[in-house]
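Let's do one together. I've listed all components of the complex below, 576 residues spread over two lines.
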Amino acid sequence: MLSLDKKILVSVDAVGKRYGDLIAVNDVSFYLKQGEVLGFLGANGAGKSTTMNMLCGVLAPTHGTITIAGHDVVKDPIEAKRKLGYLPEQPPLYRDLSVDEYLTYCAGLRGVPAKQRRQRISETKQRCGLSEVGRRIIGQLSKGYQQRVGIAQAIVHLPPLIVLDEPTVGLDPVQVREIRGLIRDLAHDHGVILSTHILPEVQAICDRVQILNHGCIIFSDDISALTQHLSAASLLLSVRKQPDLEALSALAGVVGITDKGDKHFLLDIDETNNPAERVAEYVVSNQLGLYELIPQHMDLEQMFVDITTQETERRADEMLSTERAQR
Amino acid sequence: MIAHIARHELRSLFLSPLAWVVLALVQLVLAYIFLLNIDAFIAQQDEWALATKSPGATMLIVLKTITNVPTLLMVVIPLITMRMLSDEKRLHTSVLLFSSPISMRAIVLGKYFAVLIFFGLSWLIIGMMMVSLNLGTQLDLGHVAAALSAVFLLLMAIAAIGIYMSSLTAHSAIAAIATFALVLLLWIVDGAAKLNGSESLLSDISMKFHYQSMLTGLVSVVDVAYFFLVTGVFLVLAVHRLHKERVYG
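Okay, and this is what the predicted structure of the assembly comes out as:
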């Protein structure tokens, strides 16, 4: 579990990136502590990869500061980059090399001393399940194995910070589970930043989550808070005969009723005083023919869409009002 | 770190058939020209023997052969340098380099030295070919050394131009053509100076002018400095270009 005294590994302060008039990332700020997994959620084009690239020194931010383990990525890039391992969206693989040759090259680039390379590489291969394919040519490996080589490249030098950009894209379900297991395992002694547009992935592996939309962070909280957001706030009731809606809404705990048509009703409820039992009793005692009473969990997808559309509407409103003000 | 990158590049080079084909072709073409010159020399030997001031084997074989080297280098060096940086961009492997704790300078120099070592091999074989004449006749070894240094300096400069061109684009073919075009331009630019009948700025920047001046056997600081200057300028430009890429993505 997280504790407050853990060292802050990464701090990102008001970082932005613009290409001419296009604002790719706008004033993003966040931090990461040691041993934490931070998830970045966002639709395609939300600015996830740009943020990751800036974090890893591949792109220079237009403004703002990024510090990794106390080193500024822009001013002191070499020391900062020593502390990180990065798997970009497209794994940077040399397809002509064998896995061993490739990892040896990466280990050297990432500053593993020549004497320790062999040892580090065999440990990394074991960890990523690559021990069997060391001599195979990367170009001939399956997508799943290539992705593992990409991850191996990012962790071969045991960096405090590991940044993974959509690590499970294009993998089959079994491989996805393996990679997720690997990431959780890595989180024991590394800080991990992970970007994805697959929502359940965040629930499965992250401690904290941030949602990025149009280059801004629009949601940032613990995963437990996120799960709470998603918990039941309504009941779906389906009956054979038309009930008396006023009597239903008079039941303690029922806040509102929406008629969904065809004798389906959505009951908004008070979570602290769940009326499911009373609703059932009422329906049964009035012989209305109860056949469904389902607590409605808002799924992550739904919430994601809600948050992003709210944000988009808010922006549209803002733009409208500024336009009006200008007139 | 420069050595680490250079070693990797050399390994990748020798994994591709292109490198072997280039090495073989350079050797084949030069050996053929070399042979033609030896043949011509033997055929004319009797005439030269009667002359009071004969040019000798150094002039007639070594220098005649080495005069042909630039055309060859102009064509083959771009083929090797073209992929050095453009492929990293095209295959997205540049991210690996940029997120590693190495400077842009190390990346450029690592790749440059790989090219230099690669063509250094070719250069060594050319050198051995020339010096082998010493078994049968007496060469002016100083003159041969001056000519061979000219070849090396030239390949240094062309390789640097090639690396820079490769940093500009993700398409290796464009890098190759641009390198060839620029080198050719630098080679022939002194033609205009000759028309004027005066040595001008144009001959100062011409590769041909400095190359041929070294082939006379005279190694002057100006000529050597010229090639080092061209090399340095284009390598610095390449480093600069990589920095720009980080800023503008």
